[in-house]
Amino acid sequence: MDLPRPAHRPARPDLTLVPRPRRLSPRPGRFRLDAGTRLRVAPGAETAADLLRAYLATGTGPCLEPADDGAFVLALDPALTGLGQEGYGLTVSEQGVLLRAARPAGLLRGVQTVRQLLPYEALAGPSGTDLELPGVEITDVPAHPWRGMLLDVARHFQPVSYLHRFVDLLALHKLNVLQLHLTDDQGWRMPVAAHPRLTEVGGRRAQSMVGPAGSDRFDGRPHGGAYTRAELAGLVSYAAARGVTVVPEIGVPGHVRSALAAYPELGNHPDRRLDVWTRWGVCANVLGVGDHVLDFFRTVLDEVMDVFPSPYVHLGGDEVPTGEWESSPAAVARAAREGLSGPRALHGWFMDRMAGHVVRAGRRPVAWAEDGATLPLSCTVMSWRTPEHAWAAARRGHDVIHADHRRTYFDYARGSGPGEPPAQPGHTTGLRSVYDVELLPPPDEPELAGRVLGAQGQLWTEFVPTPAHIEYLTFPRLCALAERAWHPADDWRDFRSRLDGHRARLTALGVPHDTLRDPAPA
Questions:
Q1: Are both 110 and 182 inside the same structural domain?
Q2: Which stretches are tagged as biased composition: Basic residues (predicted)?
């Protein structure tokens, strides 16, 4: 259920920016963008200039030809050290526009602010009229370096064309990470040349469960899809041009039923033939622990790291039932041989082997914090069950990303109204719940703040088959997450006031942030 709108409205609707800039001062006058506007691009600012031209061409058509005396200036100045990696300064007056940053990423964030300053209708498509930017002085620096959103394309595949749109929506809100959940029990979407059956077999399931885990109803419709290497490489480039890093997630040693359907020898019962799972919930099947399994997934990770240049690689690691290991003589023997306390300890052992491979490749492994379990110290921890697990990991020396399911899981319903489309049962996550995501450490442990990289939203897609449904559940809750990850202040009333104006941008972009007309699968 959407919350009531505040009684007050901002005096300047054109300055209802989300997330809120660190410092903003309105200035008199407006700058007109028209066919005669020229762009002065300093060395190192070319990517930001290309992005700005692309957005403005979508609005009215000015192509912003380059000129040494251009009134719209993009400047890269490494001496602006106070702006850090992603900060920027923006000045708009009647005479011109100056966008400055110390690093290219900062210019890309500033371009998104310019995009939000445009008239709302300019976001909807070509208007054939000149544009004006309001006079303003902005200095802006993010509070946290990781501002992410996970999209699960394993349970319900989405075409790469939609992922491009999703990236643009993240970039508009200054999120800088798209975590792509590429594999799960219900589907494998990542191509691996050495193991083609992962997508040929693992990328298709016979049908999908209707309703929550435990349901006995199925839709009877096959579902499948997989990306090509070229599509994923193109997505990585598209996202990078907008300042978004695509972090791949290949989950092990659980959530692997699709891989086991393709290659039974990876399991604890290699003679058993499994199908790609058609149910939701936690599957009992997990990877075996033989050397050939480790080698197989090292090859998978090598290909993943070749396609995705992200400094981070997510290894999953959550919801790993140990029943198969406990009943497997091979797994029991492996635990004994490795000096482990028993088969249950194979979870940490397996994660350590995969994390070590990622580290040796010069990357940083990420894993879900599961029941407070200890993970390899090389792992960045994504804490999803409770914030206490995040602080426990920080005390052990991990960097942490807050992903508390009660605050950041957008597959939960936005409200309890009868008009809400299908969603994950068990919890309701309203806009205020997301806004209240806790990023500050316990008061008596302020030193842990240095371990907090940021926060991330999650959209698992058991109940979310279409782009329209994705966007309905994501917005406007993503706006609240973006606000808290970017700006350190806690001012709910001010955020709600700005969100009222920002909703017009979402409407112009065709984002169904209020109602979902057709939640049914296409």
A1: no
A2: 1-10
Query: Could you tell me if residue 513 is inside a domain?
Result: no
* Half-sphere exposure (Cβ direction) of 478: Cα atoms closer than 13 Å: 33
pLDDT digits (tens, 9 = 90+) for 111-127: 999 999 999 888 877 66
The contacts of residue 139 (CB under 8 Å, 6+ apart) are 21, 22, 23, 83, 87, 88, 89
The CATH code of the domain that includes 191 is: 3.20.20.80
By C-alpha distance, which of 161, 169, 154, 145 is closest to 204?
Answer: 154
Distant-in-sequence, close-in-space partners of 224: CB < 8 Å, separation ≥ 6? 157, 187, 203, 204, 205
For 356-359, which contacts have Cβ atoms below 8 Å and span 24 or more sequence positions?
357/298, 357/301, 358/301, 358/305, 358/313, 358/315
* Residues 206/261, Cβ–Cβ less than 8 Å: no
Q: Is residue 521 part of a domain?
A: no
Q: Please count the CA atoms within 13 angstroms of the CA of 299 that sit on its side-chain side.
A: 13
- pLDDT value at 521 more than 50: no
Per the domain annotation, does 2 fall within a domain?
no
Query: Tokens 């492994």 sit at which residue?
Result: 365
The verdict on 342 and 373 lying in the same domain is yes
DSSP character for 505?
H
Contacts of 230 (CB under 8 A, 6+ apart): none
Report the domain count for the chain. Answer: 2
Other CB atoms within 10 A of residue 497 CB: 18
Give the pLDDT confidence of 280-324 residue by residue, as tens digits.
Answer: 999 999 999 999 999 999 999 999 999 999 999 999 999 999 999
**Is residue 18 one of the residues assigned to a domain?**
no
Its domain, for residue 117, covers: 23-140
Local confidence band at 420 (pLDDT 50, 70, 90 cut-offs): confident
Phi-psi region at 342: left, alpha or beta (left = phi > 0; alpha = psi -120 to 50) = left
Query: Cα(20)–Cα(172) distance, rounded to whole angstroms?
Result: 12
Angle between helices 346-360 and 329-337 (to 10 degrees): 70
Active centre residues (catalytic): 184, 255, 319
CATH number, domain with residue 77: 3.30.379.10
Residue 242: both structure tokens together: 């907008």
Same domain, 160 and 104: no
170 with 130, same domain: the answer is no
| pLDDT tens column, 238-285 | 999 999 999 999 999 999 999 999 999 999 999 999 999 999 999 999
182 and 241 together in one domain = yes
Collapsing DSSP to helix, strand or coil, 416 comes out as: coil
The phi-psi region of residue 503 (left if phi > 0; otherwise alpha if psi is between -120 and 50; otherwise beta) is alpha
Tell whether 218 and 80 lie within a shared domain.
no
DSSP 30: E
